[in-house]
Amino acid sequence: MKRVILLLIFILAFLCLKTPVFASENNKFGIHISHLGDIDKAAELVNSNDGDWGYVTIVIQENDYDHDKWQNFFDQCREKHLIPLVRIAAEPIGETWKIPTIDSLTSWTDFLDSLNWPIKNRYVIIFNEPNQTKEWGNQTKPKEYSHILDQAIAIFKNKNADFFILNAGFDQAAPNSNSTMEEYKFLQQMNFEVPGIFNKLDGWASHSYPNHGYTGKPWETGKASVKGYEWELLVLKNNFGLKKDLPVFITETGWPRSGNSKLITSGYLEQAFTNVWLPDKRVAAVTPFILNYPEKPFNNFSWFDSQGNPYPQYETIKQLLKVAGQPEQIKKIEIVSISFPSFIPANNTFIGKITLKNTGQSIWGEKLFRLLSLPSPISPTSLILPDKVIIKPDEKYSFDFKFSTPSTAGEYLLSWQGLPEYRVTVFEAWKLTNTSQTFFNRLVNRITNFWYNFLR
């Protein structure tokens, strides 16, 4: 009996590990881009073949706080249904990157919070491969990075709980040397300096390259493989007290063409997606490095050549079957104006006009946009956006609506789902014979006609 119980516990634990990281459908396909102009190629790749809402990893440097530039990029992501994974970076100094400071995190938070993101989750990767000296001011300082990461989590989350914080991806193949630190040692010193640091993360960023020397095969496992994230998760749970099931974002991976034929590189990527990353429910996204960088030092990783022609892996991955992601978007509406008579006679029908502004993340009209009226004796008609009309964030649209007053005088409420309530005072007309010819009836008709023409 004890053996049966232990077996059931083991099976339940195994099933828990396989629980999807997202409640809704998620398109795991993504790509790492370096040029904002590559967004069309990225969308065509990751949202092909039934796919929607794939991912793009993009780097923003601290000397590039250009609000209009990056808001335009986010708006394009929204229109093309791409989810940005933003990796923040300090400034380059020659061939190295400056060490970021804790003070700079506030500027980062303020800038990224000023942007209207495409979806609710605001994915932010806190710098890059700090176990390489060239990525951290020619030094490896795991304790310093641990404090930076800890403060980043606190500052971003205090600003807006929708920030979804990921660690820097690590170089899994790095040895202990003058220019690198082995990842286990780096993680160990991080956790020693800030105990429980990994439990504060929302997800795990992994650079699961087929190393060493990018000669690994798509069926290999363990550290420095296309499944290197699995080794990282085991280390975090078994050695550094990780209690969460962190969703994995493979923000860098792939094979260079040097040493491999173009078709081998393409075939390896197809096998890795099909047999490793897609079936693994711990993996939330995979953005191979890099879409379009035909110059050195990354020309061998680029998916496009210098003439703008795609290498075979682009078409291969494009043809793979995908799913339509359904990320959550914040829906917000601002009433710009509303026009209707607030003091009106009983037993009459009136037309009003309301102008709404889209202050959320979604694009009205991509799906049916309809605001139902709330139950009331003078319930207005629903507000329905006409077919083929698209209203993007910060744009406005004016809706006409009708409502009829009851026969009983009093104060009534007029409203729609999610909008404020408005009071309407209804008064009874005095009763006269031959009402079609009464002065009051003619007056009401004139008021109604005037109001209708005024709104038009």
UniProtKB/TrEMBL annotation:
Residues 1-23 form the signal peptide. SUPFAM superfamilies: (Trans)glycosidases. Keywords: Signal. It comes from Candidatus Shapirobacteria bacterium CG08_land_8_20_14_0_20_39_18. It comes from the Bacteria. This is Glycoside hydrolase family 5 domain-containing protein. The keyword Nucleotidyltransferase does not apply.
